[in-house]
Protein backbone atom coordinates (compact mmCIF):
# COMPACT_ATOMS: atom_id res chain seq x y z
CA UNK A 1 0.00 0.00 0.00
CA UNK A 2 0.97 3.66 -0.29
CA UNK A 3 1.18 4.07 3.50
CA UNK A 4 3.64 1.21 3.86
CA UNK A 5 5.62 2.45 0.88
CA UNK A 6 5.82 5.93 2.44
CA UNK A 7 7.07 4.50 5.75
CA UNK A 8 9.65 2.41 3.91
CA UNK A 9 10.75 5.47 1.92
CA UNK A 10 11.30 7.49 5.11
CA UNK A 11 13.41 4.73 6.63
CA UNK A 12 15.76 4.48 3.66
CA UNK A 13 19.43 5.21 4.15
CA UNK A 14 20.97 8.42 2.89
CA UNK A 15 21.28 8.38 -0.87
CA UNK A 16 23.15 11.49 -2.06
CA UNK A 17 22.27 11.14 -5.74
CA UNK A 18 18.59 10.78 -4.94
CA UNK A 19 18.17 13.25 -2.10
CA UNK A 20 19.49 16.00 -4.33
CA UNK A 21 16.62 15.27 -6.73
CA UNK A 22 13.75 15.56 -4.28
CA UNK A 23 12.87 19.10 -5.38
CA UNK A 24 14.59 19.28 -8.75
CA UNK A 25 14.38 17.72 -12.17
CA UNK A 26 16.07 14.55 -13.36
CA UNK A 27 18.65 16.57 -15.30
CA UNK A 28 20.86 16.90 -12.21
CA UNK A 29 21.42 13.17 -12.32
CA UNK A 30 23.08 13.51 -15.71
CA UNK A 31 25.90 15.86 -14.73
CA UNK A 32 28.68 13.52 -15.87
CA UNK A 33 29.66 14.54 -19.44
CA UNK A 34 30.81 11.00 -20.15
CA UNK A 35 27.21 9.76 -20.07
CA UNK A 36 25.45 11.90 -22.67
CA UNK A 37 23.70 9.34 -24.91
CA UNK A 38 19.92 8.91 -24.71
CA UNK A 39 18.44 5.60 -23.58
CA UNK A 40 16.46 3.61 -26.14
CA UNK A 41 13.72 1.09 -25.46
CA UNK A 42 14.31 -2.17 -27.31
CA UNK A 43 12.44 -5.43 -27.80
CA UNK A 44 13.60 -8.36 -25.73
CA UNK A 45 15.67 -6.42 -23.20
CA UNK A 46 18.89 -8.01 -22.05
CA UNK A 47 20.09 -11.06 -23.93
CA UNK A 48 19.79 -13.48 -21.04
CA UNK A 49 18.12 -16.79 -20.49
CA UNK A 50 15.71 -16.12 -17.64
CA UNK A 51 14.59 -19.24 -15.80
CA UNK A 52 10.91 -19.18 -14.97
CA UNK A 53 10.83 -21.27 -11.79
CA UNK A 54 7.07 -20.89 -11.42
CA UNK A 55 6.55 -22.34 -14.90
CA UNK A 56 8.94 -25.22 -14.16
CA UNK A 57 7.00 -26.15 -11.01
CA UNK A 58 3.75 -26.00 -13.00
CA UNK A 59 5.15 -28.37 -15.64
CA UNK A 60 6.33 -30.81 -12.97
CA UNK A 61 2.94 -30.67 -11.26
CA UNK A 62 1.03 -31.33 -14.49
CA UNK A 63 3.28 -34.18 -15.62
CA UNK A 64 1.58 -37.52 -15.25
CA UNK A 65 3.42 -40.12 -13.15
CA UNK A 66 5.09 -42.97 -15.00
CA UNK A 67 3.73 -45.62 -12.62
CA UNK A 68 0.17 -46.36 -11.56
CA UNK A 69 -1.52 -48.39 -8.90
CA UNK A 70 -5.00 -49.85 -8.51
CA UNK A 71 -6.82 -48.22 -5.62
CA UNK A 72 -10.09 -50.13 -5.83
CA UNK A 73 -11.17 -53.59 -4.68
CA UNK A 74 -11.79 -54.95 -8.20
CA UNK A 75 -8.19 -55.93 -8.99
CA UNK A 76 -8.64 -59.67 -8.56
CA UNK A 77 -12.16 -60.00 -9.90
CA UNK A 78 -14.03 -58.86 -12.98
CA UNK A 79 -17.47 -57.33 -12.69
CA UNK A 80 -18.81 -56.31 -16.14
CA UNK A 81 -21.44 -53.99 -14.69
CA UNK A 82 -19.11 -52.13 -12.29
CA UNK A 83 -15.38 -52.43 -13.08
CA UNK A 84 -13.24 -54.59 -15.39
CA UNK A 85 -9.83 -53.34 -14.33
CA UNK A 86 -8.49 -56.88 -13.96
CA UNK A 87 -8.74 -57.31 -17.75
CA UNK A 88 -6.49 -54.31 -18.47
CA UNK A 89 -2.88 -55.02 -19.41
CA UNK A 90 0.23 -52.94 -18.88
CA UNK A 91 0.30 -52.25 -22.62
CA UNK A 92 -3.18 -50.70 -22.45
CA UNK A 93 -2.15 -48.38 -19.64
CA UNK A 94 1.05 -47.26 -21.42
CA UNK A 95 -0.88 -46.51 -24.63
CA UNK A 96 -3.47 -44.55 -22.69
CA UNK A 97 -0.87 -42.41 -20.91
CA UNK A 98 1.06 -41.76 -24.14
CA UNK A 99 -2.03 -40.53 -25.96
CA UNK A 100 -3.16 -38.30 -23.08
CA UNK A 101 -2.53 -34.72 -24.22
CA UNK A 102 -2.43 -31.99 -21.58
CA UNK A 103 -3.89 -29.30 -23.84
CA UNK A 104 -6.94 -31.31 -24.92
CA UNK A 105 -7.11 -33.38 -21.76
CA UNK A 106 -10.67 -32.44 -20.85
CA UNK A 107 -11.95 -33.23 -24.34
CA UNK A 108 -10.07 -36.51 -24.34
CA UNK A 109 -11.46 -37.53 -20.96
CA UNK A 110 -15.01 -36.82 -22.07
CA UNK A 111 -14.67 -39.40 -24.85
CA UNK A 112 -14.19 -42.09 -22.19
CA UNK A 113 -17.07 -41.04 -19.95
CA UNK A 114 -20.81 -41.36 -20.22
CA UNK A 115 -22.48 -38.51 -18.32
CA UNK A 116 -26.22 -38.32 -17.70
CA UNK A 117 -28.85 -37.48 -15.12
CA UNK A 118 -30.27 -40.27 -12.96
CA UNK A 119 -33.30 -42.03 -14.42
CA UNK A 120 -34.99 -42.51 -11.07
CA UNK A 121 -35.36 -40.02 -8.24
CA UNK A 122 -36.55 -40.40 -4.69
CA UNK A 123 -40.19 -39.31 -4.82
CA UNK A 124 -40.32 -38.81 -1.06
CA UNK A 125 -37.81 -35.94 -1.25
CA UNK A 126 -39.18 -32.66 -2.53
CA UNK A 127 -35.89 -30.73 -2.73
CA UNK A 128 -33.73 -33.08 -4.74
CA UNK A 129 -30.24 -31.77 -5.47
CA UNK A 130 -28.93 -32.23 -8.98
CA UNK A 131 -27.19 -35.58 -9.21
CA UNK A 132 -24.89 -36.81 -11.96
CA UNK A 133 -24.45 -40.38 -13.12
CA UNK A 134 -21.08 -41.04 -14.75
CA UNK A 135 -19.70 -44.22 -16.28
CA UNK A 136 -15.97 -44.50 -16.95
CA UNK A 137 -14.26 -46.51 -19.70
CA UNK A 138 -10.64 -47.31 -20.62
CA UNK A 139 -9.74 -48.22 -24.25
CA UNK A 140 -7.72 -51.33 -24.99
CA UNK A 141 -5.15 -52.08 -27.69
CA UNK A 142 -6.63 -55.33 -29.01
CA UNK A 143 -7.67 -53.65 -32.28
CA UNK A 144 -11.40 -54.13 -31.76
CA UNK A 145 -12.05 -50.65 -30.40
CA UNK A 146 -13.10 -52.21 -27.13
CA UNK A 147 -13.83 -50.03 -24.10
CA UNK A 148 -13.60 -51.66 -20.69
CA UNK A 149 -15.81 -50.23 -17.99
CA UNK A 150 -13.97 -49.28 -14.79
CA UNK A 151 -14.89 -47.60 -11.54
CA UNK A 152 -14.07 -44.01 -10.61
CA UNK A 153 -11.11 -44.97 -8.40
CA UNK A 154 -9.37 -46.85 -11.21
CA UNK A 155 -10.08 -44.06 -13.69
CA UNK A 156 -8.58 -41.44 -11.33
CA UNK A 157 -5.55 -43.64 -10.69
CA UNK A 158 -4.80 -44.23 -14.38
CA UNK A 159 -5.38 -40.66 -15.55
CA UNK A 160 -3.91 -39.03 -12.40
CA UNK A 161 -6.96 -36.75 -12.26
CA UNK A 162 -8.74 -35.93 -9.02
CA UNK A 163 -12.40 -36.73 -8.36
CA UNK A 164 -13.13 -33.03 -7.94
CA UNK A 165 -11.84 -32.23 -11.42
CA UNK A 166 -13.89 -35.03 -12.91
CA UNK A 167 -17.00 -33.72 -11.15
CA UNK A 168 -16.44 -30.19 -12.50
CA UNK A 169 -15.85 -31.62 -15.98
CA UNK A 170 -19.04 -33.68 -15.87
CA UNK A 171 -21.14 -30.85 -14.45
CA UNK A 172 -19.91 -28.41 -17.10
CA UNK A 173 -20.57 -30.90 -19.88
CA UNK A 174 -24.17 -31.43 -18.77
CA UNK A 175 -24.90 -27.72 -18.49
CA UNK A 176 -23.03 -26.41 -21.56
CA UNK A 177 -22.63 -29.61 -23.66
CA UNK A 178 -18.93 -28.80 -24.01
CA UNK A 179 -15.70 -29.03 -22.05
CA UNK A 180 -14.64 -26.18 -19.71
CA UNK A 181 -13.16 -23.12 -21.39
CA UNK A 182 -9.61 -22.09 -20.46
CA UNK A 183 -9.82 -18.90 -18.41
CA UNK A 184 -6.23 -18.66 -17.23
CA UNK A 185 -3.69 -16.31 -18.77
CA UNK A 186 -4.42 -13.61 -21.30
CA UNK A 187 -4.06 -9.86 -20.97
CA UNK A 188 -5.98 -8.49 -18.02
CA UNK A 189 -6.78 -4.88 -18.79
CA UNK A 190 -5.84 -2.76 -15.79
CA UNK A 191 -5.39 0.98 -16.43
CA UNK A 192 -3.56 1.47 -13.11
CA UNK A 193 -0.91 -1.16 -13.88
CA UNK A 194 -0.47 0.16 -17.42
CA UNK A 195 0.02 3.70 -16.09
CA UNK A 196 2.61 2.47 -13.57
CA UNK A 197 4.52 0.59 -16.27
CA UNK A 198 4.60 3.65 -18.53
CA UNK A 199 5.76 5.77 -15.59
CA UNK A 200 8.67 3.41 -14.94
CA UNK A 201 9.69 3.48 -18.62
CA UNK A 202 9.62 7.29 -18.70
CA UNK A 203 11.69 7.44 -15.52
CA UNK A 204 14.38 5.18 -16.99
CA UNK A 205 14.39 7.07 -20.30
CA UNK A 206 15.08 10.33 -18.42
CA UNK A 207 18.67 9.23 -17.71
CA UNK A 208 21.70 9.53 -19.95
CA UNK A 209 23.85 6.57 -20.84
CA UNK A 210 27.13 5.73 -22.52
CA UNK A 211 27.44 3.42 -25.50
CA UNK A 212 30.35 1.09 -26.08
CA UNK A 213 32.67 1.96 -28.98
CA UNK A 214 34.74 -1.21 -28.73
CA UNK A 215 33.24 -2.63 -31.92
CA UNK A 216 32.17 -0.99 -35.16
CA UNK A 217 28.81 -2.72 -34.95
CA UNK A 218 26.32 -1.22 -32.51
CA UNK A 219 25.48 -3.95 -29.98
CA UNK A 220 22.60 -1.92 -28.57
CA UNK A 221 23.92 -2.08 -25.02
CA UNK A 222 24.34 1.10 -23.01
CA UNK A 223 25.87 1.87 -19.63
CA UNK A 224 24.53 4.03 -16.83
CA UNK A 225 26.62 5.79 -14.20
CA UNK A 226 28.43 3.25 -11.95
CA UNK A 227 27.14 4.95 -8.79
CA UNK A 228 23.57 4.12 -9.78
CA UNK A 229 21.73 0.83 -9.33
CA UNK A 230 18.27 -0.55 -9.92
CA UNK A 231 17.37 0.01 -6.28
CA UNK A 232 18.63 3.61 -6.49
CA UNK A 233 16.42 4.26 -9.51
CA UNK A 234 13.41 2.53 -7.98
CA UNK A 235 13.78 4.51 -4.72
CA UNK A 236 13.90 7.81 -6.58
CA UNK A 237 10.91 6.85 -8.75
CA UNK A 238 8.95 5.72 -5.68
CA UNK A 239 9.59 9.01 -3.85
CA UNK A 240 8.38 11.07 -6.78
CA UNK A 241 5.23 8.97 -7.08
CA UNK A 242 4.44 9.32 -3.37
CA UNK A 243 4.97 13.07 -3.51
CA UNK A 244 2.39 13.25 -6.30
CA UNK A 245 0.01 10.89 -4.41
CA UNK A 246 0.20 8.24 -7.13
CA UNK A 247 0.33 4.44 -6.72
CA UNK A 248 3.72 2.76 -6.68
CA UNK A 249 5.05 -0.68 -7.54
CA UNK A 250 7.47 -3.13 -6.01
CA UNK A 251 11.17 -3.32 -6.72
CA UNK A 252 10.67 -6.59 -8.60
CA UNK A 253 8.29 -4.93 -11.10
CA UNK A 254 10.75 -2.08 -11.66
CA UNK A 255 13.56 -4.60 -12.16
CA UNK A 256 11.45 -6.66 -14.57
CA UNK A 257 10.81 -3.64 -16.81
CA UNK A 258 14.44 -2.53 -16.53
CA UNK A 259 15.76 -5.92 -17.72
CA UNK A 260 13.09 -6.79 -20.32
CA UNK A 261 12.51 -3.41 -22.00
CA UNK A 262 16.07 -2.03 -21.97
CA UNK A 263 19.55 -3.35 -22.62
CA UNK A 264 21.30 -1.46 -19.84
CA UNK A 265 24.09 -2.05 -17.39
CA UNK A 266 25.91 0.02 -14.78
CA UNK A 267 29.49 1.25 -15.12
CA UNK A 268 31.41 1.77 -18.33
CA UNK A 269 33.12 -0.58 -20.78
CA UNK A 270 36.70 -1.03 -19.66
CA UNK A 271 37.86 -1.26 -23.27
CA UNK A 272 36.99 2.43 -23.69
CA UNK A 273 39.03 3.65 -20.71
CA UNK A 274 41.91 5.81 -21.98
CA UNK A 275 44.96 6.83 -19.97
CA UNK A 276 44.26 10.53 -20.55
CA UNK A 277 40.70 10.22 -19.19
CA UNK A 278 41.87 8.36 -16.09
CA UNK A 279 44.61 10.90 -15.40
CA UNK A 280 42.26 13.84 -15.83
CA UNK A 281 39.70 12.35 -13.47
CA UNK A 282 42.35 11.81 -10.80
CA UNK A 283 43.57 15.39 -11.19
CA UNK A 284 40.03 16.77 -11.00
CA UNK A 285 39.22 14.85 -7.81
CA UNK A 286 42.50 15.94 -6.15
CA UNK A 287 42.45 19.61 -7.27
CA UNK A 288 41.39 22.19 -4.66
CA UNK A 289 41.55 25.33 -6.82
CA UNK A 290 38.15 25.87 -8.42
CA UNK A 291 39.53 27.68 -11.46
CA UNK A 292 42.09 24.98 -12.24
CA UNK A 293 39.50 22.31 -11.59
CA UNK A 294 37.11 23.97 -14.04
CA UNK A 295 39.83 24.08 -16.71
CA UNK A 296 40.57 20.37 -16.21
CA UNK A 297 36.89 19.50 -16.50
CA UNK A 298 36.61 21.60 -19.65
CA UNK A 299 39.62 19.85 -21.23
CA UNK A 300 38.16 16.46 -20.36
CA UNK A 301 34.80 17.43 -21.85
CA UNK A 302 36.42 18.61 -25.11
CA UNK A 303 38.46 15.42 -25.28
CA UNK A 304 35.35 13.25 -24.91
CA UNK A 305 33.44 15.27 -27.49
CA UNK A 306 36.25 14.73 -29.97
CA UNK A 307 36.37 11.01 -29.15
CA UNK A 308 32.62 10.65 -29.69
CA UNK A 309 32.85 12.46 -33.01
CA UNK A 310 35.75 10.22 -34.05
CA UNK A 311 33.76 7.06 -33.41
CA UNK A 312 30.77 8.50 -35.28
CA UNK A 313 32.98 9.14 -38.30
CA UNK A 314 34.49 5.67 -37.94
CA UNK A 315 31.07 4.06 -38.31
CA UNK A 316 30.36 5.96 -41.52
CA UNK A 317 31.35 4.11 -44.69
CA UNK A 318 31.51 5.45 -48.22
CA UNK A 319 31.10 3.40 -51.40
CA UNK A 320 34.44 2.20 -52.71
CA UNK A 321 36.30 2.92 -49.47
CA UNK A 322 38.74 0.42 -47.95
CA UNK A 323 38.86 -0.12 -44.19
CA UNK A 324 42.25 -0.97 -42.72
CA UNK A 325 42.63 -2.21 -39.12
CA UNK A 326 46.01 -1.67 -37.47
CA UNK A 327 46.90 -4.01 -34.60
TrEMBL record:
Species name: Schizaphis graminum (Green bug aphid)
Top-level division of the source organism's lineage: Eukaryota
Official protein name in the record: Uncharacterized protein
Amino acid sequence: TQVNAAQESNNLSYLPMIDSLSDSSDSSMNIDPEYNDPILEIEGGRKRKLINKKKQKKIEKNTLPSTWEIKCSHANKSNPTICRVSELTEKDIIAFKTNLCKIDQDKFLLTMMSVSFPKRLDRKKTNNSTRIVTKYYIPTTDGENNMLKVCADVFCSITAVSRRRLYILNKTFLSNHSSPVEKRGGHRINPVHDEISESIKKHILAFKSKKSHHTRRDSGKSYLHPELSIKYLWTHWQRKRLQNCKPTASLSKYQHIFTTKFNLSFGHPRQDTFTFCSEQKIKISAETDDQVKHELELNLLIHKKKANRFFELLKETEPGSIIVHLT
